[in-house]
């Protein structure tokens, strides 16, 4: 069932679910007070034994995270309680995760990996200096925005829930595929613990391979984490021997054998560059372009779609959500298979089930404003849904259908997918035909 429309904390209106996991659910939301987009993370309270004390500790931890102000750290805005479940409000990041970047491109160029590593290190250095450990550094917690900014998310999230209650069921906090050996053994984390997970992330980014090997079973992953560790990069062709050596040092099993501070690692990686690194932004742009093209491929030719909405499933959050444990096997390919690009029909059906011909034009204006503001990813998603709805309910020749397809083509063109954009423009032109009143129903800018 959709949570869209629910207001959390009297001001955060939930728009759509963008992730889910063992600790809770992440929503894109609208802050109705400050009129801005935010992320609202609602945590599960299944294990809470002392709700009042837990909420006070949650509030204190949220305040500690909010004090970390750094360009490479996600901004924390607010905390509170909604229906006996704690929630955290953070800035909403428009881009892709490191997980998604590697899933599409495979191993990344060494200079790009240095840029990503430097951004992560700068974030860890700021947090560690503030007395906060991340505790769950993994590729899906590393966001790369559309302007090439590397932002580390979910700082200290493991401390925002009752650790004793969670671990009593023999479930360790963190993601086994990226956990340090000492964390697997249940020992207290240190800055070196975060640095180990950083090393595994960089290992994945360089090779495109799961650092602790591929297995559908968590057991072998945990065993490798405490006995063998990641396969050494020294001697492997990665184009940057010094970087390979640094990653190997970060991945050492004993904390004392690793670099001891994020500042030290940052110095060896090089400074975080100012502005938008072209190589990194281009990789992100390719991901967004492929995603938008996938939206087009998901549209049937003028066929109606059933509006029976099943349980919510957001294909684009797979890298960040799925389950309490992120899969150890990272599906990597040089190009993402076409089926992985298609917009989830469940997502389309859910959104369309709440849409009517009367509000379609209103949603279309919203989508056009997104295009004009340059928020092309969200615009492409919304316009795909609108086009699908209008084809089924209004027909292929209706002005609202044609306008939706036109603006979807504009999105594609601005993302650089010129072939797909041209095909959609041609479809609109053929359907509109000579003599049609071009102004009728197609001026969606109000």
From TrEMBL:
Any idea of its EC number? 2.7.11.1
Keywords in UniProt for this one?
ATP-binding, Kinase, Nucleotide-binding, Serine/threonine-protein kinase, Transferase
Concerning SUPFAM superfamilies, the annotation shows: Protein kinase-like (PK-like), TPR-like
| Taxonomic source organism | Streptomyces millisiae
- Pfam families per the record? Pkinase (PF00069)
> What is the protein name given in its UniProt record?
non-specific serine/threonine protein kinase
Q: Which SMART domains match?
A: S_TKc
Protein kinase domain: from which residue to which, for each copy?
Answer: 12-280
């Amino acid at each position: 069932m959709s949570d869209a429309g629910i207001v959390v904390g009297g001001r955060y209106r939930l728009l759509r679910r963008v992730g889910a996991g063992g600790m809770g659910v992440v929503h894109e939301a609208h802050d109705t007070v400050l009129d801005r987009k935010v992320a609202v993370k609602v945590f599960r309270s299944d294990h809470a034994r002392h709700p009042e004390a837990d909420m006070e500790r949650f509030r204190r931890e949220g305040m500690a995270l909010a004090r970390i102000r750094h360009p490479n750290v996600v901004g924390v805005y607010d905390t509170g309680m909604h229906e006996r479940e704690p929630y955290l409000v953070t800035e909403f990041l428009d881009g892709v995760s490191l997980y998604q970047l590697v899933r599409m491109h495979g191993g990344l160029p060494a200079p790009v990996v240095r840029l990503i590593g430097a951004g992560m290190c700068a974030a860890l250095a700021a947090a560690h200096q503030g007395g906060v450990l991340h505790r769950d550094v993994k590729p899906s917690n590393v966001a790369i925005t559309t302007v090439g900014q590397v932002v580390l998310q979910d700082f200290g999230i493991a401390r925002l829930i009752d650790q004793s209650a969670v671990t009593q069921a023999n479930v360790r906090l963190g993601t086994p595929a990226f956990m340090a050996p000492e964390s697997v053994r249940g020992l207290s984390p240190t800055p070196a613990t975060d640095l180990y997970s950083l090393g595994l992330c960089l290992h994945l980014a360089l090779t495109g391979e799961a650092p602790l090997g591929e297995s559908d079973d968590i057991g072998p992953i945990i065993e490798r984490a405490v006995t063998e560790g990641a396969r050494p990069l020294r001697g492997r062709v990665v184009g940057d021997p010094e970087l390979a050596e640094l990653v190997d040092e970060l991945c050492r099993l004993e904390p004392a054998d690793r670099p001891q501070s994020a500042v030290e690692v940052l110095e060896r990686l090089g400074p975080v560059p100012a502005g938008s690194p072209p190589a990194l932004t281009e990789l992100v742009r390719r991901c967004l372009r492929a995603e938008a093209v996938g939206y087009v491929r998901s549209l049937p030719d003028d066929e109606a779609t059933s509006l029976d909405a099943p349980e919510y499933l957001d294909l684009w959050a797979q890298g960040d959500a799925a389950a309490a444990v992120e899969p150890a096997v990272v599906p990597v390919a040089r190009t993402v298979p076409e089926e992985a690009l298609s917009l989830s029909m469940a997502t389309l059906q859910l959104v369309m089930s709440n849409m009517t011909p009367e509000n379609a034009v209103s949603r279309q204006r919203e989508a056009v404003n997104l295009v004009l503001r340059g928020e092309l990813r969200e615009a492409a998603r919304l316009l795909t849904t609108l086009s699908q709805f209008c084809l089924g309910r209004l027909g292929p020749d209706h002005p609202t259908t044609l306008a939706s397809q036109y603006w979807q083509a504009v999105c594609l063109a601005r993302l650089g997918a010129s072939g797909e954009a041209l095909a959609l423009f041609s479809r609109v032109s053929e359907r509109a035909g000579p003599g049609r009143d071009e102004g009728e129903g197609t001026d969606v800018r109000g």
